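Records of this kind hold a single protein each, on a pair of labelled lines. With that in mind, the following record should read easily:
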Amino acid sequence: MKTIRLTAAQALVRYCAAQLNEDGVPFLAGAWAIFGHGNVAGMGEALHAAGDAFPTWRAHNEQGMANAAIAYAKALNRKRAMMVTTSIGPGALNLVTSCALAHVNRLPVLFVPGDVFANRAPDPVLQQLEDFGDGTVSVNDAFRPLSRYFDRIMRPEQLLTALPRAFATMTDPADCGPVTLAFCQDVQAEACDYPAAFFAPKEWHRRRPRPGLREIKVAADAIRGAKRPLIIAGGGVHYAEAAAALTSFAEKHNIPVGETQAGKSAMPWDHPLNLGSVGVTGSSATNAVAEAADVVIGLGTRLQDFTTGSWALFRNEDRRIVSINVAPYDTHKHNALPVVADARLALEELTALLGGHRAPDIDAGLKPGWIEAVDEVTAAPTGNAKPTDMQVIGAVQRGVAEDAIVVCAAGGLPGELHKLWKAARANGYHLEYGFSTMGYEIAGGLGVKMAHPDREVVVMVGDGSYMMLNSELATSVMLGQKIIVVLLDNRGYGCINRLQIACGGASFNNLIDTARHVVPSSIDFAAHAAAMGAGSEKVGSIAELEAALGRARESDKSYVVVIDTDPMPTTDAGGAWWDVAVPEVSDREEVRAARARYETARDLQRVAD
């Protein structure tokens, strides 16, 4: 048997570079790395030697670079991914939030944090956690419940089994998610005679499971018998590359479609059967159909509470759920009729069984009425009041290319964007709302731009999220990956402030000006962005914003436009109840009234049907 003598780190990098996706291109586009004593000698040397065959990018924050890697995979529908490596200790733990983010969103990423010495000779090493009752524990054990696959590499030859398992996980449609290989720092530098065949190029083809004959027939019978069916398109539509199949299916069988945050842009916004967003941040059109639907067809969605209105949205007493998903775990939620299958293949087989069946027409006025409401709240204001989030969204929509990709993650903006953004092309809407991670936005925008260098990427972010994690703006400038950032400054956590008040509470500790302080906060965001090398300016009106967006588009580097906004208004049209528990006991009359409303709304929940 021919062998190659390599360090464990060199072997890991060589193997990763040789793994291809079904299109014959490297599945891993390269590595993000912040080096420390736990990975600089071993992984650092191996990555340097790989050069352009497995490129390495430097970032400013471990969580930021991990978010960029995850956004890259999401933007490419999980067909490609990236590796992320850090030192041990705080560098590794800075990845934990991102690992959870990838797990919740079922997105592939390879985490390779450094770990303690396997030989334990110098214990305790710098940054090592010492568990008084368990000598095998390191901080990387925090990744165990957050990873789809976890392994600790304590001998060089363990890579022979760990790496194939890692790639099998990342390329599996049902098990897809983050993989963590905690890499002991002494082992990284140890040599081993690896079989040469281990490094031969290998293509990983995504499985497309076909539905079981009984499952698909039961689903087809339910759809055929429905008088008011509704499709809910989730992120699985994108990952299965089933957007065209969805449009064809909906058209042939006359079934309206609502979109989740992850599923939005699966159909063009102006398609007559695309009724828009669904659920807590849903359109009035989709939610009206959802309330009356007798068959709800979940297509690639995990049916989280924002989609289902905390399971109070679907009010038809006779309604049934057909759940089509590659993950069996998702198909059985709420006693659904399960179809474990690839979304595209399931639609193709369903349409063959349904033949010429067409569902009854829905109210023709629902969608036009919703679009009228959207256009009203996103129109440019006529007065001098501070603009709303909705008006800023309208300005951005008018000010960027039709095929632009909008990126956002947390706060009030995701809800408004879900309702109001008009996505014309598939993957034109990139929201991380599975984990709703504040600070994802700018790093995520960088990852999206790396995935789609030919498309305009516009990041919409509030001042709260910007302050949490903005350092990868400098990385985007350094790498020549231009993004446009629209920063809405409402001086605090405006979304949670509104929720606090809606639950009967007083405005408390959310807005900067009413939080405890000695010196009033005054942050020059435009100057801050400029200090990181980006073009920037602050504007005072929607008209100025639209003009600034023109300058941002012409810029050859990342560009930040800052605008002050009103923290209170939201879109009144659309929406659904969301279960946020209100205290049963309070001295505040407002809280007691909110509790009474909460109990009334909770009666609509159908938790175990």
Q: What stands out?
A: The CA atoms of residues 245 and 348 lie 7 Å apart.
